[in-house]
Amino acid sequence: MAHEGTRDDNKINVYECHDCGTKFLDTIDKENDYENGFMHETDDLSDLDVEERLELCRTDDMRRYEMIKELCFGKKVLDFGCGFGGFLKYISEVSASCCGVELGKIERDYLQKNGFCCFKTIDEAKDKFDIITLFHVFEHLSNPREWLNKISEHLAENGYLVIEVPNANDALLSLYECKEFADFTYWSAHLYLYTIKSLSMLIESIGKYDIVSVEQVQRYPLSNHLLWLAKGIPGGHNKWHCLNSTELNGAYSQKLGELQMCDTLYFILQMK
Question: Residue 122 and residue 113: Cα distance in Å, rounded?
């Protein structure tokens, strides 16, 4: 057993495959009520400061946009698990068209009010897309093999699938063995945490995709890790922002990448 309990349910334990390093819950069929506000603990849009949430995600949305904007230029893009559409707003500037898939009713209502096409399920999207993105979504899916097959049915010929997931080999877990971070990061909604090896094995076993590229991204800087290690709490990038610098964080991210211990994995796949 990799960890006893999750942050929101002490009856669900986390296990690890000793071959590929995937971490998974012992109860992976648990259905979280995403449509009715599971991610927000409210089902009322008026209770949320959506602009504040979009601002919190802006750095990631901009990074994702910059990473694939050339791939998306003049193409039809679908963002699966699009949330409040931060990435959609950026990619709409270069894509021929873009829309989202989002289980959360709060998010769908917001997007539709702001002129974005958003489906509840991917089956409602009848078109085929040149690019489908899943940013921190794939780890929530209980049947990943089935989902990879299903998504392939919605990709155009030679279309691309972009998957970004947390890294099961995150330095705070595998190198520093920070108990407080483990208690925080293992969550009933994260059904699987993948390594480069395990996600590559899964994709290759489907036989429908070529792996174009695999990158590691360190979303949180050294200051965040230092506060976890010193105080056992998140938010070091804000609390100890005096330690943030492009040079320091760049060097730290590079070293973690060499160790395959960045916090995030970024895969680009192409239909065979």
Answer: 20
Contact between 24 and 37 (Cβ < 8 Å): no
Three-state secondary structure call for residue 260? coil
Give bridge partners of residue 164 from the DSSP assignment. Answer: 135, 266
Write the pLDDT tens digit of every residue in 112-134.
999 999 999 999 998 899 999 99
Cβ atoms < 10 Å from Cβ of 33:
11
For 46, 182, 185, 220, 256, the CA distances from 103, given in Å and listed in that order, are 18, 27, 22, 27, 34
For 177-236, what is each residue's pLDDT tens digit?
Answer: 999 999 999 999 999 999 999 999 999 999 999 999 999 999 999 999 999 999 999 999
Q: DSSP label at 167?
A: B
Q: Is the dihedral of CA 138, 139, 145, 150 positive or negative?
A: negative
Nearest by Cα to 150 from 132, 136, 135:
132
pLDDT digits (tens, 9 = 90+) for 15-63: 999 889 999 998 765 555 555 555 554 445 555 688 888 998 999 999 9
Tell me what pLDDT residue 78 has.
Answer: 98
Question: Can you tell me the distance from the alpha carbon of 134 to that of 80, in angstroms, rounded to the nearest whole number?
Answer: 5
Q: Which amino acid is at 196?
A: I
What is the structure's pLDDT at 52?
86
